[in-house]
């Protein structure tokens, strides 16, 4: 069906953009509820249907997360790994494009 095909195509696109060669883990509330439809084949066909990049996607394992508490388990593991607290993210670096735009504004 259309939703499964679009879901698989989007997952495949994301796998390519992020270079997820270690695997794709589909989570959230929808995937476990439609697991039989995901296993039927249309999802993985759409996932891999990327022309010359299809062979790369054929090597990427795809799994569905069925544990409803995955986010909590991950947060607990992160907290255990950083008992003194998680460091604040560093300030994002500005890109060349951002610096050029700021420079143009100053010249006006």
Automatic annotation (TrEMBL):
Entry keyword Transferase: yes
Gene3D superfamilies xrefs: 3.40.367.20
GO molecular function: ATP binding; D-glucose binding; glucokinase activity
UniProt entry keywords in alphabetical sequence: Kinase, Transferase
A Pfam family matched in the record: Glucokinase
Compositional bias ranges of the Basic residues kind: 94-108
GO BP terms, alphabetized: glycolytic process
UniProt region (Disordered), positions on chain: 82-108
Alphabetical list of SUPFAM superfamilies matching this protein: Actin-like ATPase domain
Listed InterPro entries: ATPase_NBD, Glucokinase
Protein name: Glucokinase
The organism of origin for this protein: marine sediment metagenome
